[in-house]
Amino acid sequence: MRPFTFERVTSPEQAVSAFAAQPRARYLAGGTNLVDLMKLGVETPEHLIDVSRLPLDEVATTQEGGLRIGANVRNSDLAAHPAVCRTYPALSQALLAGASGQLRNLATTGGNFLQRTRCPYFQDTSAPCNKREPGTGCSARDGVNRDMAVLGHSEHCVATHPSDMAVAMAAYDAEVEVLGPEGARTVPAAEFHRLPGETPEQDTVLRPGELISHVTLGPPPEGARAAYRKARDRASYAFALASAAAVLAVDEGGTVRHAALAFGGLAHRPWRARTAEEALIGSRADAESVGRAVDAELAAARPLSENAFKVPLARSLAVTLFARLAENPTSPAGT
Amino acid sequence: MIPQRTATSSTLTLHVNDTAHTVTVDHRATLLDVLREHLDLTGSKKGCDHGQCGACTVLLEGRRANSCLLLAVAHDGAHVTTVEGLGDEERPHPLQQAFHERDAFQCGYCTPGQIVSGVGMLCEAAEGHPSHATPAEALGHSTGAPAQLDRDEIRERMSGNICRCGAYPHIVEALEDVAADGLQARQGSERGSERGSEVSA
Questions:
Q1: Which stretches make up the 2Fe-2S ferredoxin-type domain (chain B) (predicted)?
Q2: How many CB atoms lie within 10 A of CB A114?
């Protein structure tokens, strides 16, 4: 690991000023991913700005009846928060499907959005990787690509975003509040991460020096039910091969009023399935309609040599999720 | 005006097992490094050093955490409990006793991390934290009441601790024994939050 200087800040504004003075800096919160990447030599900051003690550790109810979550709220606390368990069950389920008990106690809401891909070539400094070192090439595209993207990838990068939490946040239309040198702004969670295109080194739309301060959830649609499902190689403590978060509201006649679907493990960002959602609104949430809607979404998939299995896997996750949510419309959480 | 910082080491105080230690460390040092190399507390093990195996688990402010991923400099003033702080040969922690009685280890390398993680896990369950194994219906009606720990719950909640010998069946039994007695779990929690006196390392 490279030597680095260190400072602790006491306000988000001070953090942003500190970054402006030390552009080769990184913000440090839970550190579960950053410290690991520093050990691997993937991240080589010259300066760390410790934001872990900033007073951004509250979950507050908003005037609209939603939640405003401080960026420093730990994943374990957010998952166990009664309002999240009751009103945003897919978020709680997604958080609990990620990492381990120890890691969830450290990892923060803001940091979870900002974790980097677990592509093995990105983490291996001896391998070419356009995300780590632009212009060196992509080792994964024709390498071991079983875990890689099937949607939205480019010739430059086929990495996936590893977060579970961000998938649920995208399905719930969460908004990410950031503070930067030019002030505060808000970015929809579903648009916070980028597709790789020609600049895979940029995971998100954050500008240099911007700091996540809060994540805001609006009240879920009336009568909506939601759930998160994750497929992985072992029952616990593994990244998703594919995952899905779904929010569904149907009227008394069984017609879909609101449908949100986001996939994890399929792309460089949580994949909000807008095509499938549009097809579902006004239809019935039965297996046939959902299957047809999801097929329309996944028609855009371009699997690599080893990961074609992800397409039917994602389809099955989504169909099963919606079927369960449609079964018992009175309970907020899917089973 | 922000002063230009040049130091790559800092002096900080860590409250470990009820004792305060003031140490000067390179910013690159993890809490695990400081425990083992500066404070001679070698119970916490460096298994993978990447937060994947759980052998380095300590209680940080009473909550379990991978000490290999904690930069010591960011935890100035923190209260830490290691396996050495849970109990000793004369007065073992109930979970240490249960591991002994259930023969819940083979080579023993992962055991300190398993035990500290187990103590943290039992506290989380007592505080009503759900897990991935918690049924969705129960999650939706979360009341904060203590979580009931069956084998599936224990296995899920302990998945951050890897045992290469595969002693899992006995580890689960040891945890079941202690989970059945909520009082013992609370004793562990209180120990984890005790405060101690100042000394220099």
A1: 10-86
A2: 21
